[in-house]
Write a structure and sequence with these properties.
Length: 270
């Protein structure tokens, strides 16, 4: 089921971690951002689009984590873009023997059994100097940074005032730092937040990779909350973040264990 969040911008929210796939209507078809999770959800999305006479003409993955690079044959064979770094990172993960089994360890079994490995992770890297998605539709600006994952990009659909944030600015997930690959994960994260803050004046609707859609006020509140969380990590102290502990929303209690692991990872790495 697609829900409109702005003119010509619709989302499909997955059963898994409130993952948001975003559809942007263009002149000759749609741009699909972070296509979806369950095979049957993507098949349903493909059906909805074809019933309304639309096809996917381009796709974009915000970052190289498994839940953002899935695909379904029914969505067709449009180019699937990511930043150059995103494409390189997923290519790396999909090399060597046993890569499929290594990635599958992260994936809940009910999702894995509906997965199409033949179309998993096929991301075309856009040249490093690219600032906009190459497609025939509203201008979509890429805001690349290194918070959360290598080559992560938020997308700003300028004329519609929509920011697609990828795995940042969630109301249910704390900032998840790239503690293992980045030299300075905390500074990378703060730099990413500064870039999003710089774009905030143009945003009326925020769509996070996981969680609830928000307005301009939510965007600013989540930037502040995420910055406070990350700064508290630097002090390796308690955060008081509402997404961690008893105030976490139902079903999201596990976020506290991500927080504990992050604290550990940072202490070990730094
Ligand atoms: Zn992610």
């Amino acid at each position: 089921m697609l829900r409109q969040v702005a003119e010509g911008v619709l989302i499909h929210q997955s059963e898994f971690c409130q993952s948001n796939a975003v559809v942007v209507q263009g002149r000759a078809g749609v741009l699909l951002i972070d296509a979806g999770i369950y095979g049957n959800e993507m098949a349903c999305l493909a059906n909805d689009l074809s019933e309304s006479g639309q096809t996917v003409v381009a796709s974009f993955s915000t970052h190289p984590h498994w839940d953002h690079v899935l695909w379904h044959d029914g969505l067709g064979a449009a180019p699937r873009y990511g930043t150059a770094r995103c494409a390189a990172a997923i290519r790396d993960e999909m090399s060597g023997t046993g890569w499929q089994a290594r990635i599958a360890e992260w994936i809940p079994p009910d999702i894995a059994e509906q997965m199409s490995w033949n179309v998993f992770g096929l991301i075309t890297g856009l040249p490093a100097e690219t600032t906009e998605i190459p497609w025939d539709g509203p201008r979509v600006r890429m805001i690349e940074h290194q918070a959360h994952a290598p080559g992560h990009a938020a997308l700003l659909i300028e004329d519609r005032g929509v920011l697609v944030a990828g795995d940042m600015l969630s109301d249910v997930l704390i900032p998840m730092l790239d503690v293992h690959d980045a030299a300075d994960p905390i500074e990378d994260y703060l730099a990413g937040l500064r870039l999003l803050e710089g774009a905030a004046g143009d945003v009326d609707v925020l769509v996070p990779g996981h969680g609830s859609v928000g307005g301009a006020d939510q965007l600013r509140a989540r930037i502040d909350l995420d910055r406070a969380y990350v700064q508290a990590l630097r002090g390796a102290g308690a955060t008081g973040d509402p997404r961690v502990g008893p105030s976490a929303k139902d079903g999201w209690e596990w976020v506290a264990s991500v927080h504990a692991r992050q604290l550990q990872g940072l202490t070990r790495d730094n």
